[in-house]
Amino acid sequence: MVRKVSVKLLIPLWLLLWVMPSYGELIDRIVAIVNEDVITLSELDEAVSPYARQIRSGLYDTEKERQMLFKVRHDILERMIDRKVTEQQGKKLGVSVSETNVDHRIEQIKEEHYYTEKELKKALSAEGYTLEEYRKQIRGELLGIKLINIEVKSKIAVTEEEIQDYYAGHKDVYGEKKKYHLRTILVRVPSWQRGEDKLRAQKKTEAIAIQLRSGMPFEEVAKKYSADETAKDGGDIGWFSIEELSTELQETVRWMDQGDVSPALETAHGYQILLLEEIKESAVKTLKEARMEIQERIYRDMVEERYDTWLKDLRADSYIKVVQ
């Protein structure tokens, strides 16, 4: 429920005087009220400034630039409101971030990017920030992390049932996958051969197919007639998933049963006959192998979902007014 609180009671008298026009000039004004705190126009402008510069240097047409500036201004104001309610909740719970915490995080950032203090300040300046503004931003992020740990993460536990349900519901990722054990007989047709030579190769392949249908063992026929390098092994080309086969072979193999011999197939190498010797199904990852990965994924999704709910609840219990 939104508490109907008078704006005057929320804002100290000195602040109301500070934002009032003086000598006909508006020094600053309030753009949002968040419980007992306010966000001023100058604070919003300062936060928007780096993004606005990037947009204005993007050579967009006037209308597109206007729309992008409006959206980024709206989004940043919403983030500033989120930060205010988060900071207020932190104070209520007695959670704080020390200067030492901020120093430590900034040192980590410098190490990650191989920055000296001078280089960090230069990089921040290029983005339109001072070091002090950046410290304020880091403090807000660290406070948010602490609050998420207390208010969200500490209340989440992933159950074995949830892990099993996720595994069962994602067969495309973790489930069983078919593998095909294939043998081939190849009658080569080099690309330079003339039409009659291609026809002769086709007829030879059909004659081989007749021998196979009459009961001749595939391995013996392959050793005798196949031009493939696997002929000495009875045409054994090994195990394949459907995705590993060429486009020409995929549709044929997909509809074959174990023990089937294909018709003569025209491929990039010539004419081929396939024997589907065996089909087996194996799990891409067993539940045991996938358990930690699934647990982390579920946990991450739950944190995101519950953080969004927690933040919405904080906002719903706050007095928030955006001043146009």
Describe this structure in words.
The structure is a single chain. By secondary structure, the chain is of the alpha+beta class. The protein has 13 helices and seven strands. The strands form two sheets. The chain has a four-stranded antiparallel beta sheet. A three-stranded antiparallel beta sheet has the order 2-1-7. A hairpin with a 2-residue loop joins strand 5 (265-267) and strand 6 (270-283). Helix 3 (41-56) packs across helix 4 (62-93), helix 5 crosses helix 7 (131-151) and helix 8 (160-168) packs across helix 13. The longest helix has 32 residues, at 62-93. Residues 1-25 have low confidence and may be disordered.
The side-by-side strand order for the widest beta sheet comes to 4-3-6-5
Distance between the termini: 22 Å
- Overall form: elongated
Structural class comes to alpha+beta
How would you state the average pLDDT, rounded?
85
What about the largest sheet? 4 strands, antiparallel
**Helix proportion of residues, in percent?**
55-70%
**What is the overall number of helices?**
13
Q: State the oligomer.
A: single chain
Q: Helix and strand succession?
A: HHEEHHHHHHHEHHEHEEHE
Could you tell me the strand content as a percent range? 5-15%
Task: State the total count of DSSP E strands.
Answer: 7
CATH class of the domain at 176-283: Alpha Beta
Q: Give the CATH topology of the domain at 176-283.
A: Chitinase A, domain 3
Second-tier CATH architecture of the domain at 176-283? Roll
